[in-house]
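#struct-help
A.M.: can someone run this one for me? Single chain, 111 residues.
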Amino acid sequence: MSKYETAFDTVARCCSDAKYGIYRKEITNELDILYELVKKETARNVVVSFVTYETDSNNNLFTRTIDTYHCPNCGELLGYAKVLCNEPDDYFEVKYIEHCQQCGQKLNWNK
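D.P.: on it. C-alpha cells below:
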C-alpha cells in the first residue's frame, strides 16, 4: 500500500467515525476527489498488445510483430517496439515515462 493509499484510508476512517452531520455530503464528495488522485498516483501495469503483420521488401516476405504499450487508465498509446524481426536493427525504442501524458496515471513497466 502506498503512502497515499494509507493517508487516504486514515482520513476516510476518521471522517466516517466522526459526527460531521451537515457536512457529510461535502466531505463525501471531497473524499471521492481525493480517491481519484490516490488511484492515479498508485502505479498500474502498462497494457501490452501484440500486432503481427507481413511486409514485402525486395520480393522477400518478412513477418514482424509489434508490441504496443497503452495506459491502463485511459488507453493512450505510450509507445511501441518491433520485435521478432528478420533484421536485427529493425526496432524502435520505447520511452519509459513515469506518468501517462494524457491522464496522469502513474505507470508500472515491470510485469
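A.M.: thanks! The longest strand covers residues 47-57.
D.P.: also worth noting: Residues 6 and 38 are 10 Å apart (CA to CA).
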